[in-house]
Design goal:
The chain has about 260 residues and is mainly α. The protein is built from 13 helices and no strands. The two termini are about 45 Å apart.
Length: about 260
């Protein structure tokens, strides 16, 4: 129901925009006192948004996808209100479904639908969504990435690494894929492999810094200190690494998020 409302909203938005554009471009007709003559030429108004939407039927679904992404972002802010969060994620799901009905080739709609299923904890439907999208878009590496992220959410790191490597096979220098793979390798204790991959994405100093942060998260403090020292040695101006190293060496309590930071 919410998805249908969104489609109606998108159509109304386009139609209203067309009306405003038409009114704004109508040329006034002057009254000539001369003898009857040929009707004055009225310049043709430029194409309105509504007209362009008729030419490109994908415009409506793109607007619905934008609204669905907004809903996704809103839901992420509601961790303390799980019932409301759940409801909004279902709204996002329905919006993505309707966008796919309107334009089955919209890649972002397929990605979003799978992501919402992951957020809802429905991993089987998420997997089915991503695999179906892979079959429909075999040249798109992004769905291997999304599958990898789904496995990461399940803490199935072995399958996540396999999927992320397949994404990189298709797009070898993609920084998002490199960073995520490096993060996952570090999470499983494969530090040297993680360092090599992260260095490709962000440079040696930041790679050491982020591996160190992951090791702190895993409470492997001695190994973390080694990487943080190497980060500072590789780039003495990397203040984030220097500060974190100083905190750890002085026994201060540190909180480390799992998000990677570029550092440099």
């Amino acid at each position: 129901m919410e998805g249908r409302k969104a489609l109606a909203w998108a159509s109304s938005f386009l139609l209203c925009a067309g009306c405003v554009t038409n009114n704004a471009h109508k040329a006034p007709q002057s009254i000539s006192p001369a003898a009857p003559a040929a009707a004055p030429h009225v310049p043709q108004a430029p194409p309105t948004v509504a007209t362009e939407a008729k030419k490109d039927p994908k415009t409506g679904p793109r607007l619905v996808v934008a609204l669905a992404k907004f809903k996704e972002a809103e839901a992420r802010t509601l961790d303390r209100e799980p019932e409301k969060q759940y409801k909004i994620r279902f709204q996002a799901r329905d919006l993505y479904r309707d966008a796919i009905k309107g334009d089955p080739t919209n890649i972002e709609a397929h990605r979003g639908l799978g992501r919402v299923y992951v957020d809802l904890g429905d991993f089987e439907r998420a997997r089915e969504t991503f695999i179906k999208a892979q079959e429909q878009f075999p040249k798109e590496s992004i769905f291997w990435y999304e599958l990898g992220q789904m496995h990461n959410r399940r803490k199935d790191f072995a399958h996540a690494i396999t999927c992320l490597n397949k994404a990189l096979d298709m797009s070898p220098e993609n920084p998002l894929y490199l960073t995520t793979l490096g993060f996952t390798l570090a999470r499983t204790g494969r530090n040297e492999e993680s360092l090599a991959v992260l260095t490709r994405a962000m440079g040696l100093a930041s790679a050491h810094y982020n591996v160190g942060r992951m090791l702190l998260h895993l409470q492997r403090t001695d190994q973390a200190v080694q990487h943080l020292r190497q980060a500072v040695a590789a780039n003495p101006r990397l203040e984030t690494a220097r500060q974190l190293l100083n905190d750890v060496e002085n026994g201060r309590r540190v909180q480390v998020s799992l998000e990677f930071e570029p550092g440099e």
